[in-house]
Amino acid sequence: MHIGVKLLHWNKKKHKGDLHGRPGVFSTLPLMPKMNARFGRRNKMKTFLLAAGLVLAMSLALSCTSDIESAEEVLRKAESSSSSLLAEVSSSSLAEVLSSSSSFLVSSSSSGLSCETCVASSQLNQTGKTTRYWDGCKPSCAWPGKQTNGQGTAKTCNINGGSLSDANAQSACDNGPAFTCMNQAPWSINDNVSYGFAASHTDADCGKCFQLEFTSNGEGGGGSGLTGKTLVVMISNIGGDVGQKQFDLMIPGGGVGQFNAISRQLSSNGVSNPQLGVQYGGFRATCGNNESCVQNMCNNAFGTSALSDLKRGCDWYVTWMKIANNPNVKYKDIPCPPALRAKW
């Protein structure tokens, strides 16, 4: 008896009709050798777990999901395709596999990157809201002596985006040389998962990471399709105007808020008379629910090569977040993914 499961064979040629338009063709391959009748129930269980694991890994290589029910369906299809073997495996064993795999299922991605530390949506047991800003100042968590939950002192950068070695350097908001690092602008892992940084209401959150799942598309239009997406943020700053259960997302063009070092940074990097929009709300508050207007402001404010990281983050707000205005979230603190720690 051969167990047939669907695997993806990558071809250089793009084939129409593939899942999400990605290149590749499906073929059914025998994964297991013919099972000898003398194999006992224990060996059959091992065989099933291996088959299920292979199906799971390859299926998740095609599609990221934070929906555990969808992942369960993947394994149930694997169960159906190998019914002769699985008839001898108890349903409780399948449940055990699903349970042990649930964290991994949340956000494995097609690009080979993943949120290794994310949890199931059902574990996000707190609710809150988001706002946005980017002032360019030295983050509060970058001052020596701050309690940063084992992450060390946060990085700061010079006016051109290069790393500063002096942790005591004065903040750019006080005319010093220490700015927020531009590469901390948010970026997408795939259509459903992104990483970024944020400000909290308390220094006690410095160095913590939170898994946010959007539960609304925001206020005043925009945000189409945002509900259900995941943004993992690392706290690098605090804000006197940030409340409890609020995440002030660091988004270039999101408004300078109380302080403004970014105007000086843009001017130094080739932007004459930078326009940053409304103080609270930035480009979106200036344009309203108008993606092309927000995109034009991104292009004008961050259009030089030296500001490419800020441009990427502003574009992300348009293309991934769909210019959502202060959407609500459910959330939970989680261990920080390596990709965020690397930019911390």
Describe the protein's architecture and organization.
This protein is α+β, with helices and mostly antiparallel strands and 344 residues long. The protein folds into 2 domains: 4-105, no CATH class; 121-343, Barwin-like endoglucanases. The chain is built from 9 helices and 9 strands. It has helices spanning 41-62, 68-81, 83-86, 91-105, 262-268, 282-287, 291-301, 308-319, 338-343; strands at residues 4-9, 25-30, 126-133, 187-188, 193-200, 209-214, 230-238, 246-250, 328-334. The chain has a 6-stranded mixed barrel. Strands 1-2 form a two-stranded antiparallel ribbon. A hairpin with a 4-residue loop joins β4 (187-188) and β5.
Question: On the 0-100 scale, what is the average pLDDT?
Answer: 79
Structural class: alpha+beta
Q: What's the number of domains?
A: 2
Which strand order do you get reading across the main beta sheet? Answer: 3-8-5-7-6-9
Let me know the number of strands.
9
Query: Span from first to last CA?
Result: 52 Å
Under the CATH scheme, which class of the largest domain? Mainly Beta
What assembly state would you assign to the polypeptide chains in this entry?
single chain
Q: Architecture of the largest domain in CATH? A: Beta Barrel
User: Element order, helices and strands?
Assistant: EEHHHHEEEEEEHHHHEH
- Beta strand %: 15-25%
**Net shape:** globular
Radius of gyration of CA atoms, rounded to a whole number: 23 Å
The level of helicity is 25-40%
**The CATH superfamily title of the largest domain:** RlpA-like domain
Q: How many strands, what sense, and barrel or not for the largest sheet?
A: 6 strands, mixed, barrel
